């Protein structure tokens, strides 16, 4: 009887560990989905901008002017990275 209880406890602990891993995976996936949507929205907004429009990047409390090609490249790289992580 004691051996059965020990086995049951071990299986229960393994199940809880699997549940914990699943929860982490789901949270990670949700975070990546959110980042993907945000970056796709930024990419879409870039395509709607006029050619000479200014683009600013928030760095701490300051907005810093950024080159359009650099900003577009950064968003494209982020999207590529996020998709690879997914």
Question: Can you offer a commentary on this structure?
Answer:
With 86 residues, the chain is mainly alpha-helical. The protein has one domain (2-85): Helix Hairpins (Orthogonal Bundle), CATH 1.10.287.370. It is built from 2 helices and 2 strands, in the order H-E-E-H. It has helices spanning 2-48, 68-85; strands spanning 55-59, 62-66. A hairpin with a 2-residue loop joins strand 1 (55-59) and strand 2 (62-66). Helix 1 (2-48) packs antiparallel against helix 2. The model has no long low-confidence stretch (mean pLDDT 94).
From the spread of the alpha carbons, the general shape counts as rod-shaped
Structural class: mainly alpha
Q: What's the end-to-end separation, in Å?
A: 45 Å
Number of helices: 2
Mean pLDDT score:
94
Number of domains: 1
* SSE order, one letter for each helix or strand: HEEH
Please compute the radius of gyration using only Cα atoms.
Answer: 23 Å
Quick structural gist:
By secondary structure, the protein is mostly helical.
